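Continuing from the previous page of notes. For each protein in this section, the sequence appears first, followed by its structure tokens. Read the first protein now.
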Amino acid sequence: MYKRSIQRLVCLTMVVLVVLAFAGCRKEEPRKPLPSIPEKDKTHHVKIPDSISIGDNKEPALKVYIEQEKQIKDIKFEDYIAGVVAGEMKNDWPEEALAAQAIIARSYVMNFIETKGGSRYKGAHISTDIEEAQAWNSSAINERVRKAVKNTRGMVIVYGDGFAKTWFHAHSGGRTATAKEGLAYKEPEPPYIQVVDSPDSREAPKNDVGWTAMFTKQELLKAMADTGREIEDFQKISIGQKGPSGRAVTIMVDDIQVSAPELRLALGSTKMKSTLLDKLSVEGDKVKISGRGYGHGVGMSQWGAYSMAKQGKSAQDIIRHYYKNIDIIKLWE
């Protein structure tokens, strides 16, 4: 019995040795690489609007109504963008913040012409009238602005097969808004505009971070009438509905509901700086409103862009933080 067990053990050992020897002699076949995952198709059917196009991959020229001079001028597209960047952002800011503003400005013009066809000033594609389009200040263009524009030459923001609506504002108060709550936007909410936390710089003016404005009752009554809510008097005022970012969507004046974004514009957007409100009260014949941030809160916060650029973020990083699931493409060299 003992002898038979020994024989079995010897046989098993020999089998194992033979298998190992065969494995050692066999040439190892190289591993086949894993199949590559195809990249997302980035093809966009987006082109320069026909009214300004001079050919594919060529910089367009714009007919710009210069409000300050009351005349239309032919201006190269990139030269116009430099004036917008210098008009909308301080020209000593970090270059990546200026570059983000340049991409946004270029995209704004494309969307403006694509959707509106041109300026309300007959014969012009766009104007320097801030009530119609973007601010513009050619006298503030410096080397920093020129470099930001040059480094982003031809770059625009697209979503699907159209140019994105590139709203922006000065200071978000720490959180951006949806288009409906910040602008009383009536069309379907653009999916790339979402509520995001914004690292607005501590270097921003204190009266943008937090502000208080005083109005007379008569000023508020007139503003209400301008929004289609005409009343003779009121005793109290309060925040009504709030949106996803915490901004007031409506304001209650006694029991009358008023659109907060519309009332802000009617009262003056430089006085009632935002709809991210903390407190409203009636004090005698005065109305006191306090809040945070400066602007409608939709899209890119400029003081947020400033802070991100200071932290080493690129223009594209900044844009992708404030506009979700978009693509940045180059329309001309």
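Done with the first. The second protein uses the same format. Note its length before scrolling.
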Amino acid sequence: MKLFSIILLIGAYLSATEFREGVEVYSVEKKGRIELFAKNENLYPVTLELNVDHSNIRPTKRLPIIDVIEAQSEKKLVDLRVADDKKGWEFSTKYSYYMGSVFAKHDDNFAYRLPYKLGESFPLSQGYNGSFSHHGNVAYALDFTMPEGTEIYAARGGVVIGVEESFDEGGATLDYKDKANFVTILHNDGTFADYSHLRKNGARVAVGQKVRTGQLIAYSGSTGYATGPHLHFNVKKAVSGGYFETIPTQFATRQGKITLVEGLEYKAH
């Protein structure tokens, strides 16, 4: 019987900093079985959730399958073996995918660098669980108040996987929520850092570029959902269903590795 395969992409719920292209699930028919593969052309890993409807087929793995496809790689997902080769068979696949690995584990021992020029000090205007906007899945985010055009440096090295710098407006209403310029960096433990509300044309890095801790990456601004010029910083990881959750982080200061406190001012060194 002719191979019958339906590939259906189910849109995941993602924010403006995520991207949903460059992933393909395909099949290879061999004697007595069909092999299902996934290909990820992106610069970041993706989590793929796969289910298969089938007749006269025995999957070699329990369905549904949740697996991670590393950046710019291919991976075999499952074998579908024909139960009775004297009968007809068919199958169809449904899958969703989203940016990041749900199995990523943050390196809690890492001390982040304050994301501005050495010797400069800025107040933390909104910290963890801040009343204005840091709640829910962005509870562990930080806002540093600073003049527009302040140099922003990487708090941790990695690979740039997202840049937006085309917006030139911002405000304190949700109408501006999806108009923030940003740089997103993938770390070696599978987590991501967002540097947001950058000024228009304020990025100094490009997608695919490797950056080191302390490298100039952007200039601050007030684009997007913002009451004024500041830098929004958070570290996040993927969670099941296509969402992210932010992760509490600690920073290297003269007082040692500490958790930053809202209302205090911190000097980069």
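What the second structure shows: The two ends are 68 Å apart (CA to CA). The CA atoms of residues 144 and 231 lie 5 Å apart. We return to this in next week's lecture.
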